[in-house]
Write a structure and sequence with these properties.
27% of the residues lie in helices and 31% in strands. It is built from 2 helices and 6 strands. The longest helix is centred in the N-terminal third of the chain and has 20 residues. It is elongated. The chain binds zinc ion. The site of zinc ion has 8 residues, from loops.
Length: 114
């Protein structure tokens, strides 16, 4: 399951960061996820909550910030927000395009106690 592997990746990097910072309890985690990853926030949080105990992060709450997808048409240069997984320019009908935004996947912050 897609969301499960995202949850695992988040938990692994949080555990690593918390160890590096000498944090014993992690309480809040904030991640930035681009729309291009097609992650369903609700599923991600469910998976996260199911798995966090295994990583010693049982007290951590996950907060998700999303970045909307933005694509640039290769033909006319229009920048648009695609509604479908297949990008089609609303201006000239050209398919495909360069993703300008929405590919992000970052750990924004970890809050906790030492
Ligand atoms: Zn176009």
């Amino acid at each position: 399951m897609h969301e499960g592997s995202f949850a695992r990746a988040i938990l692994l990097s949080v555990r690593r960061e918390a160890q590096r910072a000498g944090m014993r309890r992690v309480l809040k985690i904030k991640v930035l996820i681009g729309e291009a990853h097609a992650v369903v926030e609700e599923f991600l949080k469910t998976m996260f909550d199911m798995m966090k105990g295994e990583y010693g992060l049982g007290e951590a709450a996950l907060e998700v910030e999303k970045v909307e997808l933005e694509v640039k048409c290769p033909a006319c240069g229009k920048i648009y927000h695609p509604r479908d997984p297949v990008f089609i320019c609303p201006e000239c009908g050209t398919p495909g395009g360069e993703i300008l935004r929405g590919n992000e996947l970052h750990l924004l912050s970890i809050e906790g106690e030492k």
